[in-house]
């Protein structure tokens, strides 16, 4: 299994941004249906991480 995250390297608080997460089979490069993905963002200076998992749409391959 391979996970690829595409997005910005910096985010501005309270602004809109996009992130794409791809989970695929390494052997044939095909997307894996219904892969469980959890996305957390944490400030560079530390502090509490924020879950973005609820914002992710559920897509089937």
Kindly describe this structure.
It is built from no helices and four strands. It is elongated, with a radius of gyration of 13 Å. β3 and β4 form a beta hairpin. The model has no long low-confidence stretch (mean pLDDT 80). The protein has strands spanning 2-7, 19-24, 40-41, 50-51. The strands form two sheets. Strands 1-2 form a two-stranded antiparallel ribbon. The chain has a two-stranded antiparallel sheet with strand order 3-4. It has one domain (2-55). By secondary structure, it is an all-beta fold.
Tell how many strands the DSSP assignment holds. 4
Strand/helix succession = EEEE
Mean model confidence by pLDDT? 80
**Structural class assignment:** mainly beta
Q: Can you summarize this structure?
A:
With 61 residues, the protein is mainly β.
Q: Which key terms come to mind for this protein?
A:
single chain, 61 residues, mainly beta, two-stranded antiparallel sheet, two-stranded antiparallel ribbon, 26% strand, elongated
Write the SSE topology.
Elements: E1 2-7, E2 19-24, E3 40-41, E4 50-51
Antiparallel strand pairs: 1-2, 3-4
